[in-house]
Write a structure and sequence with these properties.
By secondary structure, this protein is α/β, with parallel strands linked by helices. The chain folds into three domains: 20-207, Ribonuclease Inhibitor (Leucine-rich repeat, LRR (right-handed beta-alpha superhelix)), CATH 3.80.10; 208-242; 244-335, no CATH class. It is built from 13 helices and eight strands. The chain has helices spanning 2-19, 22-28, 38-49, 81-84, 105-109, 131-135, 153-156, 177-189, 208-241, 248-259, 278-283, 300-306, 324-335, and strands at residues 53-56, 64-69, 93-99, 119-121, 143-145, 167-169, 196-198, 204-205. Helix 5 (105-109) links the parallel strand 3 and strand 4. Helix 10 (248-259) packs across helix 13 (324-335). Bound molecules: heme C. Heme C binds at residues 259-260, 262-264, 270-271, 273, 285, 288, 290, 300-301, 304-305, 313, 315-318, 322.
Length: 341
Amino acid sequence: MKSIQQTFLSLTTLVLFSCATPDENAQAGAPAPVAQNSKEQAAVTRIKTLGGRVLYIAKDAKEYSVTITKDSFGKTKGFTVADAKVLGELGNAVEISLQHPDADDAWVASLKGLNGLKKLHLEKTKITDQALDTIGGLSSLEYLNLYGTGVTDAGLGKLKNLKKLKSLYLWQTKVTEAKAKAFQEAMAKAGNKDLSINLGVGKDLRSVNTLARLAKARAASETSARAAAAKAAKAEVERIAAIKMPTFDKDIMPIIQKRCTECHGKDKQKGKLRLDSFVELMKGADGEPIFVAGKPGESAIHTRIMLPDSDDDRMPPKGNRISQPVADLIKRWIEQGAKQK
Ligand code: HEC
């Protein structure tokens, strides 16, 4: 009975936690944040009262994320610079999102000293390079979105001490690609090789480490592709070697089609020679047969492919020579009587 009650209780708490609106959370005092001082608690309550969202990252966690949007405020209430001052008390905030068009450098100035902050969304706010003075000191920052703000090339350097910064969004700002690249390089030199910078759709300056990982993966896949090709080639050699009684239709024609008929076929007959059927092959060029059953040494089809690469008469005249196993197969075919079937 007791355990059922306990289960019920913890379920209720869970439901409360996940369904309650921020305001209800504030009233119910749940979830109970750990280690928040009274100023921080007051700030959290104030933000919730003004319609901001405060979401704890997990049940019983002390860290939370804060979202302030224009829509979430009642018509009579406005989140002003004065209210923005409370942001500075949010010592356990790991993420702050100022989705408010009035947010400007003065709002951001309030964030000074929030050294636990990992993510900061300032996209489409009024901030300028001045805000970067404050942001540059937020030492835990991993993600910074400045999309559609007034920041420029001149401000970028102020972020140079953000050793943990991984994602920086600069799309539709006045930051140039050249400057963004130079900044990324300088950061990598100083030890932060994980910084990726986004300059728009499909315009990602991927981090040094990401590029290295991709290069490694590519090399690995090339190696395995090479290994697969080598394995296939070996299997093909074994297959050919295993053909003890070759016939023209089954074994020789496929080789000729692959390597000879582009010049000795229906469309072209180089040297007046056609090789696209057994009948044509027997005709040879100008009535000269190109194979003599039983005599590979007198069969042009074999002697030509055995000529050294330096010889102009080698067939095919360009591209890779016919491999030894294939040449041997042709030889075996002639030796065994050059049968069609
Ligand atoms: C890129 C074009 C090309 C390809 C591919 C090619 N040949 Fe030739 N072949 C020629 C040309 C051009 C001649 C005529 C010049 C010469 O005799 O070297 C010729 C001539 C020959 C002759 C001599 C014919 C005669 O005059 O008695 C033989 C035999 C021959 N080729 C066999 C082959 C075989 C077998 C293959 C495939 C393994 C092949 N060729 C692929 C261009 C080609």
